[in-house]
């Protein structure tokens, strides 16, 4: 791949353009908003000048509702040898293209499983996709050259290619992305009119659950409008679990001891099902999840503190597998939770104490 055309210079399009440009590909940028394309060009993602002729690969980075229209226009104009989109829904756009009677041998649907709460070219980074799954949905009619161009794009972005059927992909992202986003938003909505005293008690748990609720609603309306059926099916199942849990909690309020036992059993059942599902979430490097020991360290909110603690862990010969930070309310301090192999926890605790760190249980 020597040349590429990115149609749509938001977060995903600009990030892909940056990755390609950094690897020597000549990237042309276009957007319905010319100012956005100029911004992406100024960031080093390519040039906002039109290509002289067909490029090797056209990347359509438009919302799902507009993907088919943008792809059809690009294909009819002969802008590239190969075409792909990066929308988060795959089945619908392909069916729209088929209905238009286009030759789809030069097209492949793709979806990089990466993103941020922020949008637009200024939020883009060339390493956004690094280590992330990038779904490819080829069909029997997909030209081998086009598949190879898509794989080359994934390689340039240092992502991990995953081949799936388009409709299976849409059901999968409904489960792992679209439905969780709505549930996160529903939980966050409970905070909108909550008393300030309650909000001040927010800790790591509520932050984890509501983090993705900060995304742009307009973008998510586009996404959910393109995949409503699978998401609605999953929310129906969640609603049934919620109703059962509500009944179990009401039973816990009963004066009848048998009903209280039934209520406790109902709550325990949903919690244990949650345990069983949570352990299936892939762990580090996509491997099966592992159980780590937590070494909690109190640190001041000062420059260099994290660098020091990681350096001290390294001197102790301990690899930090993961890290979490919980900020102390009303204090310029935080609790850093270092996740390490169980056999390394005592070694790290002793080494950090020796170097003056305040360890918390």
TrEMBL record:
Pfam families: PDH_C, PDH_N
Catalytic EC class: oxidoreductase
Record carries keyword RNA-binding: no
EC nos: 1.3.1.12
GO BP term (any one): tyrosine biosynthetic process
Signal peptide positions (record): 1-21
Domain Prephenate/arogenate dehydrogenase, residue spans: 1-282
GO molecular function: NAD+ binding; prephenate dehydrogenase (NAD+) activity; prephenate dehydrogenase (NADP+) activity
PROSITE patterns: ACT, PDH_ADH
Keywords: Amino-acid biosynthesis, Aromatic amino acid biosynthesis, NAD, Oxidoreductase, Signal, Tyrosine biosynthesis
Protein name according to UniProt: Prephenate dehydrogenase
Lineage: Bacteria, Bacillati, Actinomycetota, Actinomycetes, Kitasatosporales
Stretches assigned to the ACT domain: 294-361
